Amino acid sequence: MTPRVELVQVDAAVLRALADGDLAAANARAPVPLTPYLAGPECRGVWGVRAVQVVEDPPSAAWVTRIVWDPEREIAVGRAGYHGPADATGMVEVGYSIDPAYRRRGYARAALLVLLERAARESGVTTVRASISPANVASRDLVLSHGFTEVGTQWDDEDGLEIVYEVPVGDGPASPA
């Protein structure tokens, strides 16, 4: 069973505090309680990029990485969002990471569903992309189960080789096949 999640937006100050690993400062401004994982080394790079992005391009704040919140258990279980608004071709790229303490419980699937549903509601969005390390079998299987297909590879200076998957908006199955 896929849990229900909300993707909770945080402001630039929270993004900066998380990027700096300052959980106390992030929690002082965040709308939900945050966890050490979110201020830890696995997440800091993403928060740093997003903190700069929302200052330089304020409208992107409505799109970028958010907190994956389980409202029933009242816990933050990870992060998920888009890399930014749709590009000139209508493509948005998704990214997500779930705290290891909460993996294998359906949270990544739930977050991806929220992202796909929002993309389908947005005018101008035609394609959703996910770039995944070849070693990340769980994430690959997740996107494949939602209609994504492999379209190529790319090199990411931070993450190395990534396989690029895309799905046209509205074409992926709403639940696993």
Task: Record keyword descriptors for this entry.
5 helices, alpha+beta, Aminopeptidase, 177 residues, 27% strand, seven-stranded mixed beta sheet, single chain
Description:
By secondary structure, the chain is α+β, with helices and mostly antiparallel strands. It has a single domain, classed as Aminopeptidase. 31% of the residues lie in helices and 27% in strands. The chain contains five helices and seven strands; from the N terminus they run E-H-H-H-E-E-E-H-E-H-E-E. The protein has helices at residues 12-19, 23-29, 41-56, 107-121, 137-144; strands at 6-8, 66-70, 75-82, 91-98, 127-132, 149-156, 160-168. A seven-stranded mixed beta sheet has the order 1-2-3-4-5-7-6, covered by helices on one side. The longest helix has 16 residues, at 41-56. The mean pLDDT is 93.
Question: Can you give me a brief rundown of this structure?
Answer:
This protein has helices at about 10-20, 25-30, 40-55, 105-120, 135-145; strands at about 5-10, 65-70, 75-80, 90-100, 125-130, 150-155, 160-170. It is an alpha+beta fold. It has a seven-stranded mixed beta sheet, with helices on one face.
